[in-house]
Design a protein that fits this description.
The complex is a heterotrimer of chains A (528), B (321) and C (364). Chain A is of the alpha/beta class. Chain A contains 18 helices and 22 strands. The radius of gyration of chain A is 25 Å and the shape is globular. Chain C starts with 5 loop residues before the first helix and ends with a helix. Chains B and C meet through helix 3, helix 4, helix 11 and helix 13 of B and helix 5, helix 6, helix 12, helix 14 and helix 15 of C.
Chain lengths: 528, 321, 364
C-alpha cells in the first residue's frame, strides 16, 4: 500500500528553502481541566514541507493539543510560533489567519449546503455571496487538478460519501490559504481505498510545500506516510523521532510506556453445543444504506468468538440486532430456538429473557444512564424482573441498593457507593458496573463490544479475566473490538468483518496481525 | 358572491394577514438561526402596547413605531440572554416572555392611563393613515382592474407595504448575502460556523434582533393601524398562528407569504360570516378559526409533505472538546 | 466545573431563583408607584390571614397541583406538555357531560364518575399530540400549543351551539344537579372540629390533589413504569438498548399527563362553578409549567409551589381590590418565576457553582 513516492522522500530534504524557521513550533504548552493535566510542558517543532505524525493512545492528550493549536482552548502556559513568529491563537479566526487549517474527526459541514457554500462559509469576500461563490468555483477547479481533490461543487454534502466530505474539509482549509494542515484521525471513517486516496492527496500537498500534522493512533499510517513522528503519553510528549529511524515496535513501546504483552492467562477452550446461530443477517439503515450484507456466524458454549474489523464495518449493527434494538432480516437462533429479528416481536427485554446479555460498545450512551445512581443502573434493563418488585407493583429499591453493594464488592467497583450517580465513576469503574450487571445475570450468551475502550490499564486486566471466567463457566461470548491485540489475546476464534460482511474466520494460533489486517482491509486470502 | 364582495374579503385578508406575515418572518429569522421562538406573541403584544402608548402621548405614529420596535427588541434580548448566553430552554423562555408581556402591558397601561389596561383611542397622526397609491382615484372607474387597484392594492397603511417588501428582502438576505449564508449555517450546524472563525453568539443575537424588529412592526401595526389603540391581549393568538404559518411555510420566505395570507383569508371569512353553508355542510366560524392550527398539525404529522425544521433548532450551542 | 451538592441543586438554586424573581417583581411594583412591602402585607393578610383567605389559596393551589403534576410527569420523559390548558378544558367537558347526563344518587359517586370522565377527556386530548410525537416525530410542544387553540375553538362551538340551555345568552352549560355538589373544605374540616370559612370554593378535590401528589411520587420513583419513564427521559438510545419502548413511554407519559390536567376540572368546574363556562381553566395549564419548574418536577416541590401560587392568586385578587395594582401582577411574577427557575437557570447556577468551586478549593 505504501507509495514509493512517500517512503522515498525523507524529512532530511527540505523542499523549500525559505528560511530555516519551523513552520510551527510549540514551546512549553500546558493545559489542565480541573485536576486533570491534559497537556504538560509540550514542545514541538515541525519543519516546513513535511508530514509530522502525532501518535498516542486514546486520552493521551493529542486532541487537546490540536484544539489549542486551533484556538478552541487557551493554553495555561507556553507559546506558539508560526514561521518563527510568536503567534497568540485565541480563537479559530486567529488560527485561520496564521495559516492553520484543521480537518476534524467529526466533519464541521452543513449537511444541506452545497460543497461551494460550505467552502465559502466564513471566508466570503464581501457582503454579497455571488462573487465569492464564482471565485470559489474557479479555485476549486484548479485545486482539484493539482491535488486529486475532485468533488462536484454543486452537490449537497448529505449526498456525498464520507471520503468526499473529507475532501471538502481539506478544500475548506486550502481555500483559506492554509499552509499548515492538521488532520485528526482522518482514516477512522474511511475505507482502505479512500484512505489510500487521502494519502496521495497529502503527498501532493507536501510536494507543494504544505506542512501536515497527522494525528492518529494507527502505527501503520505513521510508518507509511510521515517524515517525523512524536509520541504522546498521558499528556506529555515522550519522544520525537524520524520515521525512517524508528520501528512500529519502538513506537508502540513509547506509546504505552512499558512493553505490555496483552496476553491473558487462559486455558484452551472446550467448546460445547452451539448457542448462537446467525444466518444471512441483513440490516438496512434509515438512509437506505445496507449496513449488514448477509452475516452468518455461530458461537458455541464455552468459547469466545472475536469480531475484528475497522470501526464502522457493521460490527455495531450486528451487536444491535443481536441485542434486540435494530431491525433486520435473516435468522437468529438461540439454543436452536428461532428468535425474531424484525423488531416486531422482540426488543431488548425479550432478548434478556432469551438469555442474551449485552455490554454495549458505547457504555456512556447505551449501557448506563449517567444521571442514575449505581443501584438504578444495576437494575437498568432488568427493572421488570419480578425479583425487584414487591406488593405486585412497587419496586423494591432498598433490596436493589443492597444487591448493588454486593455486586460492587465482587467487581471491585470504586468507590463502592450504590447511591453515587454513574457519571461520577471513572471509565473503568463504569465498565465494571455494566459488567457486574450483565455477567451476574448468568446469561447463555454475552455480547460485549469494545470492553476496554477508555479504560485504565489496571481495569483492563480485571475485565479480561472476567470475560475468560464466564467462558470457563461454559457460556458463549461474542466479543467485538477494534483493538486487534485484544481480539488476538482473548478470542478462541476470530471472524473479520469488512463492509457488512464476514470476510473470513481464523484461529488465533494459525494467523497473524498481517493476515487479519488484510482481511480487515477487504482483501481475501493470503495473497499479496 | 359578487366581485365587490370578493375584493372586500381579499382586502381584509391583506389587513389581517400582514401582522401574521411580519411575525412569521420574525420567527423565520430566529428559527433559521437555530433559536426556537414561541415568544412571537409576547413580543407583538408589548410592541402593540408601547407603540400605542407613545403614539398617543406624542401624537406621532412613527415615534410609536420606534417605541414598539424598541420594546419588542428588549423582549427579544431577554430571550437571547436565556437561550444564547445562558443556554437555557428556548421553549420555556418563550412561554415566560408571552406571560410577561400579557402581565406587564396591563400593569403599565393601568398605571399610565387608568383605563383598565387599555390605551385611549388613537386618532389623526397618532395612527398610520392609509396610503393612496398614485392614480388610484383616476383608475377607479376602470371595470374590475380599477376596483382591484383602488381597493386591494392601494389604500393600505404604509406598514402593510413594508410587510410585503419584507418578503423579497428576506429571501434576498437569506440566500444572496454573506449574512444569510452564515445565518442558515448556524441554524443547521453551529460547529461549522464556529470552526470557520465566525461567532455563533453574534449571529444568533443578530437574528434575534431582526426578529425583535419585525415583531415590533407587527405589534405596532395591530394597535396603530389595524385598530386605533391598544386593548388587553389584543394579539389574540396571532403570534401562535404566525408560528403555525412558519411551519406551514417550511421556514421559507415566499411560502410564508402564502401561508400567512391563507390564514388571513380564513380570518377574514370567519369575521364576515357566522357560518358558511356549502350545500348541506354548515361550517361554524369556530371551525374556521381552528383551521390554521389543524392544518399545521396535519403538516407536522408529515402526511402532506414533511416540515423539517433547521437541524440545530432549539439546542444551545456548546463547544465540544 | 464541579458538581453542586444535592442540597444546593435541589434547594439553594431554586430558592435563589425565586428570590430574584420576587425582587424584580418588587421593583415592578415600585415602578407603578406602589409600595411593595405594603403590597406584600395586603397579599399575606388577604391570602393567609384568615380561613377565608386560606380557602381561596387552597382552592387555587388544587388547580395548580394537578396541572403542575401533569407538566412534571411529561418532563420526566423530557416531553414538554404545553397543552395542559386545553387538556384541562376538555376535562371540564368530561365533567360537565358526566354531571349533566348521568343521574348520580350522591356526591361521592358523582365525584368518582366525573373524575373518570375528566381524566379520560384530558388524556384523549393529549393522545393525538402524543401519538404524533411517538410515531411521526412531530414536535410535541408545537402540537400541544395547536391543540390548546383547537380545544378552545371546540369548546366555544359546543358551549354556544350545543350545551347552552334554551333562552340563555351565556355560553355555558346548564347548572349541574344538586346531587353532584361536592362538599366544601369547611364541612370536611368541621368533621374533625376545625372551624373553616364556608364562603370559599375550596372543596374535597384538595384532598384528591394531595393523593395525586402521593401517587405520582410513587409512580415515578417506586414503580417499573416510573423507572422506565425516567430512563427514557435521561437517554433515549439507552432506553432502546434496555428494551424500553419510546413509543409506549411517550404515549403513557402523555396520557397520564393529560389525565392529570383533565382532573383539575373536578375542582373548578364541579367544585366551584357547578357548570362549564368558556375558558374554564383560566390559564391554570400554563401556571402548571411555573409550578413544575419551581418544584423541580418533584411532587413535594409541586405541592409547595402550588400553595405559593395559590397564595399569589388570592393575594393578587385582594391587592386588586385594595390598591390600584391590577391582578395581572401575578402574571408578571409567574413569568419571572418561569424565566429564572427555567430558562435562566444557568444564570443563577453558574455563580453558585463558582462559589462552591472556590470553597472546595480552599478546603482541599
Amino acid at each position: 500500500m505504501a507509495t514509493a513516492e512517500t517512503s522515498g522522500r525523507q524529512a532530511t530534504a527540505a523542499p523549500t528553502a525559505s528560511g530555516s524557521a519551523p513552520a510551527i513550533e510549540l514551546r512549553g504548552i500546558s493545559k489542565a481541566f480541573g485536576p486533570v493535566q491534559a497537556n504538560k510542558d509540550i514542545s514541538l517543532a515541525v519543519k516546513r514541507g513535511t508530514i509530522h505524525g502525532i501518535i498516542g493512545e486514546n486520552g493521551a492528550g493529542k486532541s487537546t493539543l490540536m484544539s489549542i493549536l486551533y484556538g478552541f482552548y487557551k493554553a495555561d502556559e507556553g507559546e506558539i510560533l508560526v514561521g518563527g513568529q510568536p503567534t497568540p491563537i485565541h480563537d479559530s479566526q486567529a488560527a485561520i489567519r496564521a495559516g492553520i487549517g484543521m480537518v476534524f474527526q467529526h466533519f464541521k459541514l452543513v449537511h444541506n449546503f452545497t460543497v461551494l457554500e460550505n467552502i465559502v462559509l466564513g471566508a466570503e469576500d464581501g457582503a454579497l455571496l455571488g462573487p465569492s461563490l464564482s471565485k470559489a468555483r474557479k479555485l476549486l477547479k484548479s485545486l482539484a487538478e493539482e491535488y486529486e481533490l475532485n468533488v462536484d461543487p454543486d452537490q449537497t454534502i448529505e449526498n456525498l460519501s464520507v471520503g468526499h466530505q473529507q475532501r471538502v474539509e481539506i478544500l475548506k482549509a486550502l481555500y483559506r490559504q492554509a499552509d499548515i494542515l492538521i488532520l485528526d484521525e482522518p482514516t477512522g471513517v474511511l475505507t482502505p481505498a479512500e484512505a489510500d486516496h487521502l494519502f496521495r492527496i497529502l503527498a501532493n500537498l507536501k510536494r507543494e510545500g504544505k506542512t501536515i500534522i497527522l494525528i492518529t493512533h494507527k502505527l501503520r499510517e505513521i510508518m507509511e506516510i510521515t517524515d517525523t513522528v512524536s509520541v504522546m503519553r498521558r499528556g506529555q510528549m515522550t519522544a520525537t523521532v524520524k520515521t525512517s529511524e524508528t520501528s512500529p515496535e519502538q513506537l508502540a513501546e513509547l506509546m504505552v510506556g512499558r512493553k505490555v504483552l496483552l496476553r491473558v492467562e487462559k486455558k484452551p477452550a472446550t467448546p460445547g453445543k452451539t448457542v448462537l446461530e446467525v444466518e444471512n443477517l441483513k440490516v438496512v439503515d434509515r438512509f437506505g444504506v445496507e449496513r449488514l450484507k448477509g452475516v452468518s456466524l455461530n458461537v458455541k458454549a464455552g468459547e469466545i468468538v472475536g469480531i475484528a474489523g475497522v470501526a464502522g464495518n457493521g460490527q455495531s449493527e450486528l451487536l444491535e440486532v443481536l441485542g434486540g434494538f435494530t431491525a433486520a432480516t435473516g435468522h437468529l437462533r438461540m439454543n436452536g430456538r428461532e428468535l425474531d429479528v424484525s423488531g416486531r416481536h422482540s426488543d431488548g427485554q425479550t432478548r434478556r429473557h432469551d438469555g442474551i446479555s449485552h455490554v454495549p460498545e458505547d457504555r456512556q450512551h447505551l449501557g448506563l444512564i449517567m444521571d442514575f445512581a449505581a443501584w438504578e443502573n444495576v437494575a437498568f434493563g432488568y427493572h421488570n424482573d419480578p425479583a425487584y418488585q414487591r406488593n405486585g407493583f412497587l419496586m423494591d429499591n432498598a433490596a436493589l441498593v443492597r444487591e448493588t453493594a454486593a455486586k460492587m464488592q465482587r467487581f471491585d467497583v470504586r468507590p463502592p457507593d450504590p447511591k453515587l450517580a454513574a457519571k461520577n465513576f471513572s471509565g473503568g469503574n463504569q465498565q465494571k458496573l455494566v459488567l457486574a450487571r450483565e455477567i451476574e445475570r448468568n446469561p447463555d450468551l454475552l455480547l460485549i463490544g469494545q470492553p476496554t475502550r477508555g479504560v485504565d490499564i489496571g481495569a483492563i486486566e480485571f475485565i479480561h479475566q472476567q470475560i475468560v471466567r464466564l467462558r470457563d463457566a461454559g457460556k458463549a461470548i461474542l466479543l467485538v473490538s477494534v483493538e486487534l491485540d485484544e481480539i488476538m489475546s482473548l478470542a478462541d476464534r476470530i471472524a473479520v468483518m469488512f463492509d457488512g460482511r464476514i470476510m473470513g474466520e481464523r484461529l488465533p494460533e494459525e494467523t497473524d496481525e498481517r493476515e487479519l489486517g488484510l482481511l480487515m482491509a477487504g482483501m481475501k486470502g493470503k495473497a499479496a | 358572491m359578487s366581485f365587490d364582495t370578493i375584493v372586500s374579503i381579499l382586502d381584509s385578508t391583506i389587513r389581517l394577514g400582514t401582522p401574521l406575515l411580519l411575525a412569521c418572518l420574525a420567527g423565520l429569522f430566529s428559527e433559521r438561526s437555530g433559536i426556537f421562538d414561541i415568544g412571537l406573541e409576547g413580543k407583538m403584544l408589548v410592541a402593540a402596547f408601547f407603540s400605542a402608548a407613545v403614539a398617543y402621548v406624542t401624537g406621532n405614529a412613527w415615534l410609536g413605531l420606534l417605541a414598539g420596535i424598541a420594546s419588542s427588541m428588549v423582549f427579544a434580548f431577554i430571550h437571547g440572554l436565556a437561550s444564547i448566553t445562558f443556554r437555557g430552554n428556548q421553549l420555556i423562555s418563550g412561554v415566560a416572555i408571552n406571560m410577561l408581556a400579557s402581565g406587564i402591558t396591563v400593569l403599565i397601561g393601568q398605571h399610565w392611563f387608568h383605563l383598565g389596561g387599555i390605551t385611549p383611542a388613537l386618532s389623526g397622526g397618532a395612527r398610520f393613515q392609509d396610503v393612496a397609491l398614485p392614480f388610484a382615484q383616476a383608475l377607479k372607474g376602470v371595470p374590475y382592474l380599477g376596483l382591484v387597484y383602488d381597493q386591494l392594492i392601494s389604500g393600505h397603511s404604509v406598514l402593510v407595504y413594508v410587510g410585503f417588501l419584507c418578503v423579497p428582502a428576506t429571501w434576498w438576505v437569506l440566500f444572496k448575502t454573506r449574512f444569510g449564508l452564515r445565518l442558515r449555517a448556524v441554524g443547521e450546524n453551529p460547529a461549522a460556523v464556529d470552526t470557520a472563525g465566525v461567532s455563533v453568539v453574534a449571529l444568533r443575537y443578530s437574528a434575534i434582533a431582526i426578529a425583535g424588529i419585525l415583531c415590533g412592526i407587527a405589534g405596532t401595526y395591530l394597535s396603530c393601524s389595524l385598530a386605533a389603540g391598544f386593548g388587553r391581549e389584543m394579539t389574540a393568538g396571532r403570534g401562535y398562528i404566525a408560528l403555525a404559518a412558519l411551519i406551514f411555510a417550511k421556514w421559507r420566505p415566499w411560502y410564508a407569504l402564502g401561508a400567512t395570507m391563507l390564514f388571513g383569508l380564513l380570518d377574514a371569512v370567519s369575521n364576515r360570516y357566522q357560518t358558511i353553508d356549502i350545500g348541506m355542510l354548515h361550517i361554524p366560524n369556530q371551525f374556521m378559526s381552528a383551521v390554521p392550527f389543524i392544518l399545521t398539525v396535519v403538516i407536522l404529522a408529515g402526511f402532506v409533505g414533511k416540515a423539517i425544521p433547521p437541524r440545530a433548532g432549539g439546542e444551545p450551542y456548546v463547544k465540544e472538546r | 466545573m464541579d458538581r453542586l451538592p444535592t442540597w444546593a441543586d435541589a434547594i439553594l438554586v431554586p430558592v435563589l431563583s425565586i428570590v430574584i424573581a420576587f425582587a424584580i417583581s418588587a421593583i415592578v411594583i415600585l415602578g407603578i408607584g406602589e409600595n411593595p412591602i405594603n403590597a406584600m402585607g395586603i397579599m399575606i393578610s388577604g391570602g393567609l390571614g384568615s380561613t377565608y383567605g386560606w380557602g381561596y389559596t387552597l382552592y387555587y393551589a388544587t388547580n395548580f397541583m394537578f396541572t403542575g403534576l401533569a407538566v412534571a410527569v411529561a418532563f420526566h420523559a423530557t416531553l414538554f406538555n404545553i397543552g395542559g390548558d386545553g387538556q384541562a378544558q376538555l376535562g371540564g367537558l368530561g365533567v360537565a357531560m358526566a354531571a349533566l347526563y348521568i343521574p348520580w344518587p350522591n356526591w361521592w359517586l358523582a365525584l368518582f364518575g366525573a373524575s373518570a370522565a375528566a381524566a379520560l377527556f384530558g388524556a384523549a386530548w393529549a393522545a393525538i399530540p402524543a401519538w404524533l410525537q411517538a410515531k411521526r416525530g412531530s414536535h410535541i410542544v408545537i402540537t400541544t400549543i395547536m391543540f390548546n387553540f383547537i380545544g378552545s375553538a371546540l369548546l366555544n362551538y359546543l358551549l354556544v351551539n350545543v350545551f347552552r340551555p334554551v333562552g340563555s345568552m351565556d355560553p355555558a352549560t346548564a347548572n349541574f344537579p344538586k346531587a353532584t355538589t361536592l362538599p366544601n373544605l369547611s364541612s370536611i374540616l368541621g368533621l374533625v372540629g376545625i372551624p373553616f370559612s364556608n364562603q370559599t370554593p375550596a372543596n374535597v378535590t384538595f384532598l384528591i390533589a394531595l393523593l395525586a401528589c402521593l401517587l405520582v411520587w410513587l409512580l415515578i420513583w417506586h414503580t417499573r413504569f416510573g423507572f422506565a419513564l425516567r430512563a427514557f427521559g435521561k437517554s433515549e438510545p439507552a432506553a432502546r438498548y434496555a428494551g424500553i419502548s419510546p413509543v409506549k413511554i411517550t404515549m403513557y407519559a402523555m396520557l397520564i399527563s393529560g389525565a392529570l390536567a383533565g382532573l383539575m376540572s373536578i375542582n373548578n368546574v364541579m367544585g366551584e362553578s357547578g357548570r362549564l363556562v368558556l375558558n374554564s381553566s383560566e390559564g391554570a395549564g400554563f401556571i402548571g409549567i411555573a409550578v413544575a419548574l419551581m418544584g423541580r418536577s418533584h411532587p413535594l416541590g409541586i405541592l409547595l409551589a402550588s400553595i405559593l401560587f395559590g397564595f399569589l392568586y388570592q393575594g393578587g385578587a385582594e391587592l386588586a381590590m385594595w390598591t390600584t395594582i391590577p391582578p395581572q401582577l401575578i402574571l408578571v411574577i409567574q413569568a419571572l418565576v418561569i424565566l429564572f427557575t427555567g430558562a435562566l437557570d444557568n444564570m443563577v447556577r453558574m455563580p453558585v457553582e463558582a462559589v462552591f468551586h472556590r470553597l472546595g478549593k480552599r478546603r482541599g
